[in-house]
Amino acid sequence: SITNLPPEASVYYSLTTPLNDGNFEEEGTLAEDPTQIKPYLNAGTYRIYYYITAPGYLTERGSRFVTILPIRLRIGVEGDSITKVYDGNTSVPELTLQSANLISGHSIVYEEAYFNSPYVSSAEFVTVYGIRVLSGEGEEMTDETGNYMIRLREGGLRLPGNITLRPLTITAGSSTKTYDTLPLTNPDYAITAGSLADGQELFAETAGSQTDPGTSFNAIASYRILASGMVPQIALMEVLEEEVIEPEMEDVTENYEVLTVSGNLTVNAAPGPGPGPGPAPTPVPTPTPPVVIEP
Fold first, then answer.
1. How far apart are CA 133 and CA 114, in angstroms?
2. What are φ and ψ of residue 251, in 5° steps?
3. In 9-45, which positions are buried (b, 16+ CB within 10 angstroms) versus exposed (e)?
4. Residue-level pLDDT at 170
5. How far is CA 124 from CA 45, 118, 158, 184, 197, in A?
6. 109 in Cβ contact with 84 (< 8 Å)
7. Lowest-confidence pick of 78-87, 120-129, 252-261
8. Which of 102, 163, 230, 292 lies most in the core, judged by the most C-beta atoms within 10 Å?
9. What is the pLDDT of residue 280?
């Protein structure tokens, strides 16, 4: 800003060339408001040359150093933190970064972002990498990152984040049969709500038995969710140079909110025997011939 200007003063300025009586109109820029010089400059320190003239006054010329400080940018996202449902990896849903002191017309973009852990119990923050501030649209966009001060940690911006339990419903199988003195069981089960994360498998066991006519529950007795996709009941081994190596199996069950639903085991009564033979007929006595006695 410029103070104590005489009436009808004209102020010329240049960012590159010292101004004098012979070049101020050609090399200089006339300030629209003589009390202020407002060239658009990026953050940094500049030398501004000026030339001031007014009728009846001596010409004033010279230069001043001007420092433009970058804006401290506090970046966040909508809501308190970044949240996603457990999916077995550290990927982050698409983010919209924002800041209260971002200049109008500027936007914040980034290249990639990751959770610090893929697990519900240890995911605490998201690190965002490749942050830039841009202005304009389409192919006319300009990188404005140098005009902002962004606090980074280990090359990225840390933001609060958490991963929530993945819902899953497991339902035990149901069966029906006619009574045959043998117990009725059903080892089948199915996922009836929710889903597993990619590359993971469910292994469960049922506990239910019905022998006599009637109905009882077939419950889910135990379950495990493994990230390796290997059957836990079978010890899969690989022989390499006479060394037995057991493959690792990662149990990720604790990252799920599991609801179990029992099935039904029903044994119907066997049909009763058919009608038996009727009573034996009453025998008809055979007449006895009379006895004749001859003299």
1. 20
2. -85, 115
3. bbbbbbeeebbeeeebeebbeebeebeebeeeeeeee
4. 97
5. 40, 10, 10, 48, 20
6. no
7. 78-87
8. 163
9. 57
Q: Say what the pLDDT of residue 285 is.
A: 61
| Matching residue, tokens 């004749």 | 292
Cα→Cα distances 106→84, 120, 128, 148, 150, Å: 28, 35, 18, 11, 15
> Under a CB-based contact definition with an 8 Å cutoff, are residues 223 and 253 in contact?
yes
Residue 169: its H or E element: strand 166-172
Q: Where does the pLDDT of residue 81 fall: very low under 50, low under 70, confident under 90, or very high at 90 and above?
A: confident
Are the CB atoms for 51 and 61 separated by under 8 Å?
yes
**pLDDT class for 137, splitting at 50, 70, 90?**
confident
Burial class (CB in 10 A: 0-12, 13-18, 19+), 174: middle
Rounded-to-integer distance, Cα 127 and Cα 246, Å:
35
Q: For residue 281, what pLDDT is reported?
A: 60
As a whole number of angstroms, the distance between CA 205 and CA 252 comes to: 17
Whether residue 38 contacts residue 50, with contact meaning beta carbons closer than 8 Å, is answered with no
Token representation of residue 161: 């984040």
Cα–Cα distance for residue pair 259/170, rounded to 1 Å: 6
pLDDT of residue 75: 92
What six digits make up the tokens of 83? 């949240």
Residue 6: φ, ψ to 5°: -75, 160
Task: Identify which of 213, 218, 216 has the alpha carbon closest to the alpha carbon of residue 267.
Answer: 213
Query: Residue 261 is which amino acid?
Result: V
**What are the pLDDT digits (tens) for 32-67?**
887 777 776 789 898 999 999 999 899 999 999 988
